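Figure 3 (text version): structure tokens given as input.
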């Protein structure tokens, strides 16, 4: 970022918010009609270094968002007491929000509003990253439908590290359509953020070559797999080869945390709950099921409610995906202890990862418990039945795409130990002709995960995320009799999505609509180590 832009950002925070986003805000007024200064909610998020108690014994150094509500109803901001995670921001569709990010970290950062439809300079592209001590002012109208969105850092090459050390929170949107359904609210509307972490003997987080004890600096960011002292810095529990593999294949922690807590155990009333699941992990996929194999009722995905509830034995949840479950705990006798598990699955790498990572304690696809839920006694609350019609969800119409007969192909590639898309790594300001789209049109894109013929012939699942919009999944195909077939049962492709899991040897087609905002947006794998090492590109929306 140049000096002039930095100064604008800093001035912006001290004076009016309007400076930064004037052209964008005008395009964004359609649903609120308010002036730029008339915000409904104003929140300050201060990214700071801190210590929290996570495990018995020494406290853990973390990075987290310290939050303050400067304007808006008290319910708009829920700080997470005693956890690195959060806060939870709650807004209504149509509200205008201003959020000031203040960077109290020793390195640059920026926040991305995952799943929200906002102008490109409000989206948290890495080109907008701010340095230590600087402020970035976001202001936008929430036009998304009710749903469970979230926010996290997005500086280039360091997203994985910053999320891992604690920076992430939920952004929950409600609207009139959802209110009318009478879904569980209050304590029965329960967000569950699932993450995996590794700790050293002193309770400190271990991330590749970084730990917060070693005060990471701008100089320690990763520039490709082989650089940056990845091989020679000592780190507990992972040898040099293991670190290098993790930097490329993904960080897999051996401790499962729910809402920032290990060994999560919930006391639940015998009533219906809405469980809002977010996979906030860097790279781990969960295959979730109740231990007693009670069916799961899915009512929402990334972009809000489905048209109707779905019943599944188990559900896959890839990094950054959300799933809303409806569970009536009155169906079990008081005192029942239920375990939500992640079941064993084949990630399509043929067990290669476990071997090559020197025996990661909890490899991708290994089974483990996620949380226990104990059904309390007492009066069974009034169990409102779940409506069988949830939301007006239009049927996707692939014929409306400008390339209905020629889907754009995006191969997820691995070459010379670097991830890429069609063989290309990240280019901060660049977008190819293939990656240029016209405002007001729809396109079909196909992510292909069967092209990795790199030097090690690796393929892994990828969790593909497109910024700035919600799309629909219109097809999922096996790529023929090439290699192993991975386990893709339990993937929920229904509803509005912003992130889609593409298993090895699969091809997934999505229908995207580019509306309202021209500019430069990202699409990438949300396995953050893949993203940080090249599986990320821009697309450009032109008027
Ligand atoms: Cu990936």
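Below: residues designed for each position.
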């Amino acid at each position: 970022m140049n000096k002039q832009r930095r100064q604008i950002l800093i001035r912006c925070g001290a004076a009016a918010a309007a400076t930064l986003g004037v052209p964008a805000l005008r395009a964004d007024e359609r649903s609120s009609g308010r002036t730029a200064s008339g915000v409904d909610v104003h929140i300050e998020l201060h990214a700071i270094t801190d210590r929290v108690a996570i495990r018995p014994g020494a406290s853990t150094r973390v990075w987290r968002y310290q939050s303050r509500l400067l304007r808006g109803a008290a319910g708009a901001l829920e700080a997470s007491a005693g956890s690195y995670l959060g806060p939870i921001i709650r807004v209504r569709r149509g509200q205008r929000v201003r959020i000031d990010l203040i960077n109290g970290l020793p390195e640059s950062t920026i926040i991305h509003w995952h799943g929200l439809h906002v102008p490109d300079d409000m989206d948290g592209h890495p080109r907008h990253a701010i340095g230590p001590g600087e402020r970035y002012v976001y202001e936008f109208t929430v036009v998304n439908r009710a749903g469970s969105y979230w926010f996290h850092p997005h500086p280039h090459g360091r997203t994985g590290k910053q999320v891992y050390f604690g920076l992430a929170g939920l952004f929950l949107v409600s609207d009139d359509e959802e209110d009318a359904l009478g879904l569980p609210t209050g304590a029965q509307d329960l967000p569950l953020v699932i993450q995996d972490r590794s700790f050293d003997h002193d309770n400190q987080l271990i991330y590749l070559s970084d730990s917060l004890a070693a005060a990471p600096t701008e100089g320690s960011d990763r520039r490709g797999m082989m650089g940056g002292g990845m091989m020679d810095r000592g780190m507990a529990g992972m040898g040099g080869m293991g670190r290098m593999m993790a930097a490329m294949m993904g960080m897999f922690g051996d401790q499962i945390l729910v809402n920032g807590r290990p060994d999560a155990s919930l006391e639940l009333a015998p009533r219906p709950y809405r469980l809002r699941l977010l996979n906030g992990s860097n790279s781990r996929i969960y295959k979730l099921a109740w231990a007693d194999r009670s069916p799961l009722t899915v009512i929402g995905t990334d972009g809000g409610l489905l048209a109707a509830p779905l019943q599944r034995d188990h559900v896959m949840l890839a990094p950054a995906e959300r799933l809303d479950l409806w569970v009536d705990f009155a169906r079990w006798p008081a005192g029942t202890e239920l375990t939500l598990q992640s079941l064993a699955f084949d990630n399509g790498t043929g067990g290669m990862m476990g071997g090559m990572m020197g025996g990661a304690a909890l490899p991708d696809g290994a089974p483990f418990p996620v949380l226990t839920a104990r059904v309390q006694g007492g009066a069974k609350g009034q169990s409102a039945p779940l409506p069988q019609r949830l939301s007006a969800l239009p049927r996707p119409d692939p014929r409306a795409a400008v390339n209905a007969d020629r889907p754009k192909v995006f191969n997820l590639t691995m070459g010379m130990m670097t991830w890429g898309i069609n063989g290309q790594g990240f280019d901060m300001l660049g977008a190819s002709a293939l990656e240029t789209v016209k405002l007001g049109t729809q396109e079909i894109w196909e992510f292909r995960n069967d092209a990795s013929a790199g030097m090690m012939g690796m393929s892994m699942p990828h969790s593909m995320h497109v910024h700035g919009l919600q799309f629909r999944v219109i097809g999922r195909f096996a790529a023929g009799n090439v290699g192993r077939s991975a386990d893709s049962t339990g993937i929920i492709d229904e509803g509005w999505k912003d992130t889609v899991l593409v298993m090895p040897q699969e091809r997934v087609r999505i229908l995207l609509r580019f509306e309202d905002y021209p500019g430069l947006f990202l699409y990438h794998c949300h396995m953050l180590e893949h993203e940080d090492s090249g599986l990320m590109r821009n697309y450009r929306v032109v008027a």
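The pocket of copper (II) ion is lined by residues 462, 525, 527, 530, 535 (CB under 6 Å).
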